[in-house]
Amino acid sequence: MAVIAHRGRSVRALIVLWFVRIVMKTVFRLFPMNDRTLPILRAFDPYLSRVPNSVRGVRIEKIVLGGVPTERIVPDGDADPHPRAALVYYHGGAFIGCGLDTHRRIASLLARGLRVPVYNVEYRQYPDGGVGTSVADGFAAYRELLESGEFDRILVAGDSAGGFVCAKVIEYAAEAGIQGPTAFAGFSPFLDISAGLPRTSRHDAMLPLAKIRKLRTVLGRGPEALRGPEDMTTDATAVYFPPTVLFAASREALELDALELHGSLDRAGVVNEVHLYDAQVHAFVVGAGITPESWHAYKTAVGFLSERLTEAEAEAGDGAAAPSPRSEVA
């Protein structure tokens, strides 16, 4: 299993990098993190959602899954290379911001690229609940989808905080004795919320770690308690994971999360890949198409997930599936 470094810096990537470093990181560094000020960040979500994020070739409907508001995103057309397969997407936002609107585009692109339904889950966040509540909602949505009997194979994917939700859903499924996800894709996943990893944000264009650590004062609250470890990168947790593909910007603060999990997955014998890209920002894959690198990473994720579905279908005796989209990756 490999760590693959993607070298090179496009002009668009450098423009995005420096804009985020100068504007967004400065705002995050100066903005106070407490109960009075954090709701202000949520107030910006409606404005973020106005950024054009529509994707042609999909149909979107609002549903409730496991008691959690969710968007079901279905690709148009009759082609169905992976029957009885679906993907559950958990958005990022440090458990305090973002939602369905801000991550509808990447969820729609995954539906269109994989040709499977994608469920974009709006789990509860601060101030409605802490991390345990976010994870409980994520698992409730996954479990209901599995128990619906509509799908035999369910992928999970998420960015940043959503990556932690994915990891805990994988763990919770194993503990509950139910079928776990077929594969996991993490985009700059935040896998250790214990603040135990020796991270640095010196070279991160977006995340000031000092502020992320302060979030612990609000992320530990209820109403649902977080079960199990806060660090999902260890050898003890790696045994729960399905085949995994991780993406991170080189030298971003959460690069270490991906590399630590990679080492643990290798020791556990779990198929995995880590892709590191130069001159990108945190969770850059969510903006697939903004930079050439983000589009390449998105296509790589689709190829990996499609291959895992094809393998699982073959093992189950479902017959030959359509060729993997990996061949489309430049």
What does the model show?
This protein is α/β, with parallel strands linked by helices and 330 residues long. The protein is built from eleven helices and nine strands. It has a nine-stranded mixed β-sheet with strand order 1-9-8-7-6-4-5-3-2, with helices on both faces. Strand 8 (244-249), helix 10 and strand 9 (272-277) form a beta-alpha-beta unit. Helix 5 (131-147) crosses helix 6 (161-176). It is globular. The protein starts with a strand and ends in a 15-residue tail after the last helix. Mean pLDDT is 86; it is low at 320-330.
Number of strands: 9
Average pLDDT, all residues: 86
Shape: globular
In percent terms, what proportion of residues is strand?
Answer: 15-25%
* Share in helix: 25-40%
What is the tally of helical segments?
11
Structural class: alpha/beta
Q: pLDDT below 50 for ≥5 consecutive residues: which ranges? A: 320-330
Question: How many strands, what sense, and barrel or not for the largest sheet?
Answer: 9 strands, mixed
Distance between the termini: 21 Å
Give, in order, the helices and strands.
Answer: EHHHEEEHEHEHEHHHEHEH
Strand order of the largest sheet: 1-9-8-7-6-4-5-3-2
Radius of gyration: 18 Å
